[in-house]
Amino acid sequence: MDFSFKKRPVKRLYSEYTILFIFLALCIFGTYLVTGHTFILSKDALNQHLPLLAKYREALISFVHHPRLNFWSWQMGLGSDTFQVYSYYTIGDVFSYLALLFPAAKITLAYQVINIIRMYCVGLAFVYFAQHFKFRNSVILMGATTYLVNSFLLYACIAQPFFTTPFIIFPLIVVQIERILQKGSPWPLAGAFTWMLVSNYYLAYVLGIGSFLYLVLRVGTHYRRTLNYGKALLKLAFATITSVLLSAVLLVPEIIAVTNSTRTGSLFANGLKTYPLYYYLFLPKSLINGGQWYFMFWSALGIVSIGFIALVYIYSRPRKYPLLTISLGLALIMLLIPAVGAFFNGMMSASNRWTLLIYLPLAMAVCILAENIPTLDQKTMAVLSWATGIYLIVLIATFFFDNENDIFMPVIFLIGSLMVIWLIHLNKLAHPYRWLLAITMLNAGVNAIYAAFPYNGDFSSSMLSRGEYQAITSNRYGNLDQDLKNNSFYRVSTISQNKIIDGPNLDNDLTSGLHNIDSYYSLQNKYLGQFNTSLQNNQYQANIPIRQADDRTIMNNFFGVKYLFVQSNGDNATKIPAGYFLDKATDPVINYDEGQPSNPQSKDEFVPTQTMRYKTNYAFPLLYWQDNYISKKDYQSLSPTEKERVLANGVLVDKQAKLRGMKAAKLKTHVYPLKSELVSNRLNKVNPAKLTYTDSEETYQLQLPELQSKKMQQKLKGSELHIEFSKIKYTPFSMKEQIAYEQAHLKETVLNPGNVINQRYTHYRYWRYHVLNGSPDISFKLNIGSKFGTSTIEQARQSTLSLFKHVTNSTLNIGYYDGKLPTSLTFQPSKLGTYELKYRVVAEKLDNNYYREVKTLQRHRLEDIKFKRNQVQGTIKTTRPGVLTSSIPYSTGWSVKVNGKKATTLRTNQAFLGVYLPTGTHHVTFSYELPGIKLGALLSLIGLGWTILAGIITIVWERKRK
């Protein structure tokens, strides 16, 4: 593996690559076009990538016309730092700027065209890299095909488009590191590093580690005796320091954003010490057949089948190819350990996205094999054949266990590739390199088509149909948002699990112009996360901190939700928070085939389907004044329901020493605990602290005996029912115990005489089921049933990666009862095991006391509110000292002036912006500036000056030397 920087004719090579790419692009994207789909995935692309591209394009055009940066958006959830959002998705992504070439009406076309261009550049980067070796053109094209068409990119190019960028940057970095090791200029590496650092902080972290590992291994295997370490280190330091300084304007704010996000404090590797058994069983298969991304923790490699033969060839000559054998061997070891995935993923989930680094050596292995195939000896052919035979046995065994036919075509191409190699070895084929390229291209093309094709890889079923994005964005709320006025600030939401548009989950609303509290971004405000975890919002996730706040009345009111949009035939359609009344509905439509009475007697009995808009008059203002404070000690002593209830009584402030003249709030929570008993359908009372669940047919009732009393019912009429779980601990049975309980249950259900249970068969069937499902694992559900439907506390699987959260407590909103409260609820765990539960059922009274408190807050709102770029201002008159608080997420980027004088911002109610106000009339102006932007800009200016100076010195030095 000798790098060479000697010039070679490459014009034909790049022309041939372009032709090759056209074929591969038709295979990668053509299926979507043929089946009437777009290249827009119905999850992240729909919620994040495409709408954020459109918004960023809009922001860039606005900046051109009005050159001032906008750092705050009121449309992203409760409000968000735009840099915090855009820095992950668009700012450093050079391809995003191509959207400026398209009109706004063609943004979906722009998004899809840009994704094709990204993939073209991936292959282009490999061709540039490989041209530095003594490979013939057809061999380089084989490597480019291997590098371009793999399971990682087939998924990423439609799901996470900017994940294609490191595939472009990494080969460039490797070439420029090699340039320095061969006594060349450090300037190209400085450029590559700068691109790496500005592209995306997460990907820069992965690429930075990968670059360091390459440098260490390359020096250790090739340059350790010949390298001038002093000069090389100076050049590397120059490239690193220059790139860090130049990118500091983005890098410094990004680091601050990450450290102040909900990402910090995640459970390392999602608690995994080892991967589930299925992961290790299917890892060999995934080399040539990637699939089931979250199932395999992003370890679905999925390269062309000849790649396996190439690996065998490389490892048959470890001394000749030490860099490849060591790096790929190290990668295999790393793939086996969840802690490695977590380390590369910023100490969070065990997500093996770092595997993007190993496709370069894999593609190089294919190139080396292809270049040397005509010269292979008989012994090497025997090694390749025996190794392939053993691998086929492993794949067949995997097939018999997994019963998935997705391995069929990769196996055909594995056998076909070996046959072509044998025919070349036996001199039976003219133009051997063309044959090798042809079978590699065909293999890659079939893999790409299979991944996208319906009922196979079936990516197409997850893609939006043509015109669907426009239909979703224009009908998000069933057109009930069209007549809403924007003369005052308010927010909107929907009902949990209730889909107005049937199909994908819709979180971010960046298109309607309304302020939806739901948001789904990689980085979220850490204080907002703390607020939701303190109140035990059951829907909280690090990427999605609020969602619909579990439909809790006071949380919706506090967030300023004035309107709720509900689909009548969706889940939880009747679980409407207190105080919301039907404001408007679409014309009723009758679906005669679903949700209708079994024997209707008249047309009046048919249930119509409608989209409904509910409204409340009890939404908290965006900014309002409170003159009573809640001490931290008192607040921490409250339960989650009590904490939300006292939000109308007073304000919690992080700096209580600044609350001169304010009184402590008299906390009247109006939250009433209810006695409860857990009873099984076998009429046994169960201790929830020691619930051993051994029979999946056993069901439970959560009985509320106090609500049998008419007096108690009258007292609690108009209450929202919550179950506050202060402790949730689930311990799964071992595999052996699990199967034993299941077999015992089966034995109990077989009651007819003469029936025989095949214990060996059932044991295997249960064991196989649990292996394929990753059992035993920590995932479970606690389902509580009521008249509104089923409310669920869910511990997700550890393979859910970024959306994983470790559930140890939660508060479940059963619903608001304006009439009689239930005397019992159904309770059902989802999995066998031992549960340690500590909970209490509470009724949160929402009566005139609460509504009077809300009306008081509304009278104390900030008046004459005006929104400007990075700013909100208004006027208020206070009769006593107090705190102007809000539901604006707090950040150190906020500053405030009261009557033109600088004041100190306060963090109120754990997560929100506020300021202390003495008695009097006040004009208050809150302004936002991106944290770290000044320091970052200063460092980048220094870096720019340093770069110019170093450039001049370099030019002068080169001229003198010549």
Query: Number of helix segments?
Result: 28
Mean pLDDT: 94
Low-pLDDT segments, ≥5 res: none
Gyration radius, rounded = 31 Å
Topology, number of strands: 33
Shape field: globular
Keywords:
globular, 962 residues, alpha+beta, 33 strands, 6-stranded antiparallel sheet
What report would you give on this structure?
By secondary structure, the protein is α+β, with helices and mostly antiparallel strands. The protein has 28 helices and 33 strands. The strands form nine sheets. A six-stranded antiparallel β-sheet has the order 17-16-19-24-21-22, with no helix packed on it. Strands 15, 18, 20, 23 and 25 form a five-stranded antiparallel β-sheet that branches. Helix 8 (187-199) runs antiparallel to helix 9 (201-223), helix 12 (306-315) packs across helix 15 and helix 17 packs antiparallel against helix 18 (432-452). The radius of gyration is 31 Å and the shape is globular. The model has no long low-confidence stretch (mean pLDDT 94).
Would you summarize the structure shown here?
With 962 residues, the protein is α+β, with helices and mostly antiparallel strands. It contains 28 helices and 33 strands. 43% of the residues lie in helices and 17% in strands.
Strand-helix topology:
Blueprint: H1 11-34, E1 37-41, H2 44-65, E2 72-73, E3 80-81, H3 82-89, H4 107-130, H5 137-148, H6 151-159, H7 165-181, H8 187-199, H9 201-223, H10 229-259, H11 277-286, H12 306-315, H13 322-335, H14 338-344, H15 359-372, H16 378-402, H17 408-425, H18 432-452, E4 463-465, H19 468-474, E5 491-494, H20 526-534, H21 553-558, E6 561-567, E7 581-585, E8 589-590, E9 608-609, E10 611-615, E11 623-626, E12 628-630, H22 632-636, H23 640-645, E13 651-652, E14 663-664, E15 671-674, E16 677-680, E17 685-686, E18 691-693, E19 700-703, H24 710-715, E20 719-732, H25 735-749, H26 759-772, E21 780-786, E22 789-795, E23 810-817, E24 824-829, E25 833-845, H27 848-859, E26 863-868, E27 871-878, E28 882-886, E29 894-898, E30 901-903, E31 905-908, E32 912-917, E33 920-928, H28 933-961
Parallel strand pairs: 5-6, 12-13, 12-14
Antiparallel strand pairs: 1-4, 2-3, 6-10, 7-10, 8-9, 11-28, 15-25, 16-17, 16-19, 18-25, 19-24, 20-23, 20-25, 21-22, 21-24, 26-27, 27-33, 28-32, 29-30, 29-33, 31-32
